[in-house]
Specification:
The chain is an alpha/beta fold. The chain folds into two domains: 2-143, 3-Layer(aba) Sandwich (Rossmann fold), CATH 3.40.50; 146-276, Rossmann fold (3-Layer(aba) Sandwich). It has helices at 8-16, 58-74, 103-114, 145-154, 171-181, 223-234, 250-256, 279-290; strands at 2-4, 19-21, 23-27, 33-37, 45-49, 52-53, 79-83, 118-122, 140-143, 161-165, 184-187, 189-192, 199-202, 211-219, 239-247, 262-266, 269-270, 274-276. The strands form five sheets. It has a six-stranded parallel β-sheet, with helices on both faces. It is globular, with a radius of gyration of 20 Å.
Amino acid sequence: MILVGHNFAESLAKLLNCKTADIEKRTFPDWEVCPRILSEVKDDYAIVAERMMLPMKPNGYFIEILLLVKNLKSMGVEKIDVVMPYFVYSRQDAVFRKGEPFSAKFVLEMLADAGATRFFTVSSHADRDKDMISFSPIPAYNINGFECIGDYLKGLDFPNPVIVGPDSGAETFVNTVAKKVRAEKAFFEKERDLETGKVTMRADADFHGKEIILIDDIVSSGSTMVSAIDICKKAGAKKIFCAVAHIVSQTGIEAISPLVDKFVACNTIHSEISVIPVEGAIAEKITSLKS
């Protein structure tokens, strides 16, 4: 077995007890990427595993993965797993307005066409409450990052926390974490204007004197979480802690961190707050499929 990649991939390789292949990454002045596989490839199975870092460059990242998969296929590798901790373009998981692309589906189709045989991601926005991504042409496993968040929170000292989701759509996430830490749960009501992106929120809950743990799948600008934090403070929260599966911008970190006691994320994207490991959950899923 060969694991292609660095950093995140090396940690995953240790858990899977497999060797790694070195990659030389070049970006030309016109921003074209050229990933070169330096190690000799002899195995018929490889894992392409890499994560992005802030500031994110999803287009170059995706093309790099496509080229790596295609290159491995040309070298005779028959089975290729793609581990994409944050599934790029997964937010466009349907055609919301006429003329828009079904981006998440098209990304998986392109990976399959390049030669990928399986796909692994963490708490994808696409089919986010399911273990499998339904519209994928290859087996696509959606690993629950909120199990990882729950395990992390269990190690912290919260006497009587309340797990709070930004909207009712986060019910599955909230239930998962609340069960792990044996906590109360609550939800905000959130509405987003598809044209302007403006979010309005409200909650009919009394958080007076309580420790609130706000959770969500993705934080980008941070506006939704900032609104939730403001509501929690006005409702009398004693402490506020934020935990998310994916932090996709530095702007979000800078907007939220000063307002809360602690802000953390899964390490699906490298950042200063990405402290919750997901490699163990990924390795467990891959290992379970081998048996």
